[in-house]
Write a structure and sequence with these properties.
13 helices, Four Helix Bundle (Hemerythrin (Met), subunit A), elongated, single chain, 3 domains, Heat Shock Protein 90, 5-stranded mixed sheet
Amino acid sequence: MKSKNKFANLPLQTKLIVVYCLTALLILVVNLFMYRNINSMLHRLDQIYVSNINLNELSASLDGVQNNMTNYLNTKTTDAMDSYYKSCQDYTAQTEWLSDAVTSNESQRMERNIKAMSARYLEFTDLAIEAKRGRNVEKYRTYSEEATTLYHYISTYINSLNNEQFKSNSANYNMLSVSLRYVEVVNTVVFLAVIFSNVLLVIMVIRNITKPLKSLATVANQVAGGDLEVAVLEVDSQDEVGVVSKAFNHMIISIRNYIEQLTTSMENERILKENELKMENHLKDAQLKYLQAQINPHFLFNTLNAGAQLAMMEGADRTYEYVQNMADFFRYNIKKDHDSVTLKEELELVDNYVYILNVRFSGEIHYEKDIDSSLENLKLPSMVLQPIVENSVNYGIRGISWEGRIWLSVYRKDGCGYISIRDNGIGIDGEKIEKIMKANLKESDISSGSNGIGLYNVISRLKLFYDRDDVFEISSQGKNQGTQVLIRIPL
């Protein structure tokens, strides 16, 4: 019993070394016997399917080039570009082993075709990447489609060549498999004898080690199930299992303390997050009110002057109608009781505005509208349509030699409500559109009294109101081809 206790208190390392030395000696003899035969046969088996492995790696590299090209075209990130060029290098290296000799051998002809198509494929992928970087949408789509077509051809060739190689290699593999089965039988018999001898020795050592480990495992399972109130382990031995048991006891106590601290920390973090969200909402609301306050009231003075002149020149009825429309227009502008209005109210404001303009300019503004009445109750920020129509008049159709027209339409499409304001005026170039969208329009780029800054004000308020960036779009086909503004409202 005393001898047994001494062995139980021995370090696990010593116990395992004794068992290992005894078992290793037997295993070493067996391994030396099997090594030559197995190593030779495995080497021959490996060589059989080298060509198939290479083709599989080539196919994987080709997929990598295609996926990374597609990823860059979709995301246009630096990481995507780096991944693309790395995959191109890998694929180029993979194609080096392909034969390019002119021969009557079917497999070598297929390798030559794959190598030639691969070079052409990489040319098209590079052209697609460069076109994407240059923002040439038409070219990068064309090149990517050409590259994708070649990708499918190359994949088909690789699969065909892989199948041919596999058929040829399978015959050799079957022969080696028979020999390998014979070696497996011999090895199995030898290993069974070695295992039987080792099991008897290991069982005796394992009994001494597993008893305290079982106790540790039982408590560990209880902790893993969420029970942290388990009783700590009683530790009697001084070996590594005893050390682990003591450490486990300390870990349980530490976890209990940590969970208590973490609960307190999470509660504090939740409170801080709520305060942060409140501050963010207040900031967004302040930004929206600030932008709404920037609408330029310069139109007031022009309309008042026109009304005074009309009162002197004409009878009271027409003047009354003019002043009434003007009053409705400015009554809308000075509303302070709400931040949002309905689309119907905005359309009525545009009607008033166009009427006032036609009085001022003798009916030279030709305005048409096509409204889906089911969308008239859509909510949007106040004063967003009138600045756009004003911009169309001042910088689209004002001063043109042909009849100026403005079309306003409201319709549904793809789950969104769309508001389109289009004119047939002088148009606007792409550079100026980009400046307006980014609020980079300089004073020298617009004429005096321009509403270019007002357009950015409208854009900013729409983005804040709907909390999305794709709500506003400006497009023009070129000089004297008119301009279209499109507002996209999620339903």
